Structures are given as C-alpha cells and as structure tokens.
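Reminder to self: keep the SMILES exactly as supplied, no canonicalising. Ligand is pyridoxal-5'-phosphate.
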Amino acid sequence: MSRTINFNAGPATLPLPALTRARDEMLDFAGSGMSVMEHSHRGKEYEAVHDEAIALVRELLGVPSGYEVLLIQGGATSLFAEIPMNLLEKGKSAQYLITGAWGEKALGEAKVVSSLFGASISVQTTAVGEGKTKSYTRVPAPGEGKVDPGAAYLHITSNETIHGVQFNVDASRPFPDTGSVPLIADMSSDFFWRPLDVTKFGLMYAGAQKNLGPSGVVVAVVSKEVLERGRKDIPKIFQFRTHAENKSLYNTPPTFGIYMVRNVLAWLKGQGGLTKVEEMNRKKANRLYGVIDGNPDFFRSPVEKESRSVMNVVFRLPSEELEAQFIADAKKKGMVGLKGHRSVGGIRASIYNAASYEWVDALAVFMEDFARKQ
Ligand SMILES: *Cc1c(COP(=O)(O)O)cnc(C)c1O
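Structure tokens returned for the bound complex:
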C-alpha cells in the first residue's frame, strides 16, 4: 500500500502509526470484542482512553496544576463564540489582534456576542490594504500596539493557516506580553508544534484536524482563573466550567475522535516529545524556505521572514498559469493538497507534525526541478 503525499491544510495527514493502531484495534478494542466507538463513554474501557489523552496533553505540554485540559465538540469555530460568551460582560471590552482570516472570523463572532451583552471589542490588525487587495504578511513585534490593562482578554491566532503567518517561530516575534490580561490563543494549526510556556496563556485551544487528530474535537488548556471568571448565566453546555467540572464528560464526548487524539499524542511522545518534534519541524520548513529563497526569480514568499509559518508554507510562482501547472505536475508525482486557500490563491504546503521530512524533501526536489525547467 502506498500513502499519498498529503499537504492538505485540514483535515490533514495523520501519523501512520496512529492509523495502524486504530486499524488493529478497530474490531476488538482492549479485548472487549467491540470497537472503541461502541463503548459507553462512562465505561472503564473508554474512560482509560479519555484519561490517557488528557494525561498526554499535560505531560507533553508541561501543563501546570493551575490549568485544566478540556476536550470539547463543535470545532474551533464554536469557541470563537463561546470565549466571548464566557468572558464578556456589560461595560467590559476584549481585544482582538488580527493577523489573518481566522482571527477575522473569531472577531466576527465576538462582535455579535459583545452587542448582545452590552460589551465592546477593540481591534488591532496587521492587515495591509482593503477588500480584494487586503493582505496579511506578518505578526507584530513586541511593543507594537497597546494592551488595554482593563480588557477581559486579548485574543490572537498563533498560526494563520491561510496566510502562513505565525507567532513564536523567530525569537523576535514572541507571543504578546499581556501582563495580567489573559492571553487567549487559537492554536488550531500549530498546537504541539513545539514546547511552549503554558503560564503565559489564560486559554489556548485547537480544533484537532490540523495537528492533533480528526475533526470533531477541540483540545483546550485553560487556567483556573479564567474558568472561575466565566459567566454562569449562559447555557451550561457553553460554560467552560461545565466541561472542567465534569472532566469533559458532561455529555457524550466525540469518543472516537478523542481516541485518535490519544493515538497521535502517544506517537508524539514516542518521537521524543515536543523538543524533538520542533527540531524536525524546523528542518522541514527550512528545506522549503531554502528552495524559495534560493530561487528568487521564480518563487516568492509573501510573508515577512520573521513571521514565516513552520506549519503552512505559502508561496507564489511568477504567474497563476504556472501555479496551476505546478499543482497539476505535483499531483502526477503523488503530492496533493498544494493549492493555496481559495481566498488568497498561490501555493500552500501544510507540513504539520505528521508530514515526514521525506515528503517535504520530495516536494523541495520537485520545486527545484520545476523552477529549472521553466
Ligand atoms: C481550521 C481552523 C479553524 C476552524 O476550525 P473548525 O474546527 O473548522 O471550527 C480555526 N482556526 C484556525 C487557525 C484554523 O486553522
């Protein structure tokens, strides 16, 4: 069996060992004569998986005791609404730092909630231009923009999946220092790419289907302080507190998705943990950016060097015709998922944790050959 070289942005490629483990356990999970999907979420077989997934999140990220790990449904998009629902109140404001399209989406939901609650939102953006020519090419350097010390929280997108713009890759582009204002980060497309200091955040969250597993699960790490601050007059299912108090078993969780997240996290641990994973991710990204920078007459990265994403490598060719040809020729070589997002065009190679160096190297060689032939 040959695996397709998959550069899809999400849902994205999964580590082969996580898939073969699922295959091997599919019909007979833990000697029970049934699949994990068919178990009660309150039974001991499923509970062991659930607990292991949470324990692996804690271990790999080094989550300190003042934080809870939540496994929730609805995708990152649901959290765009649930975060302001939990944390905004009349007369309060929240800040949104927008570095791309996902931040815009989060902001859109926050504005709806803030007008319902009589709260307000302040916005900082790195966008250049308006409408069709609007582009995002960077994250801010420290000291750019001001954090309002009275804000309920500051929301960022750690990696903008569509624009290929990421925080915390280059030492000169760290996460914003928000002091006592909780920093909230949508990490959907770069959670677990490297170690990070959990204590800098009030809440971080990720839809699993980029770097952690299949769609249907959100992994969130939240401080007890943020949990306690949450409103109590919104429906229980939307209160983060509810999931924390019930170990994410308030209602039926997406059991199979969580099982797959467990498999992916166990694989990450087997890779040697996040320090090793970071080394490999940097090696992969350097290989591709090296080809881009080494062929400046042919390839062009629209992203400022310090903000270039290690997860989504976005680049342009001299014309849209050549870009279409590039995608078609790559497909013939068994490589899929290279078309840029429909809103921005160009090429995007999503090289999450599960994309091997061999795949990335094959793409790099293909890029060099393609440039040489033109
Ligand atoms: C994919 C993505 C989302 C959307 O996740 P859903 O699970 O579809 O809701 C949100 N934020 C970022 C940064 C993403 O990459």
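Points to follow up:
Residues 198 and 355 are 25 Å apart (CA to CA).
Residues 10, 75-77, 102, 157, 161, 186, 188-189, 207, 210, 215 surround pyridoxal-5'-phosphate (CB under 6 Å).
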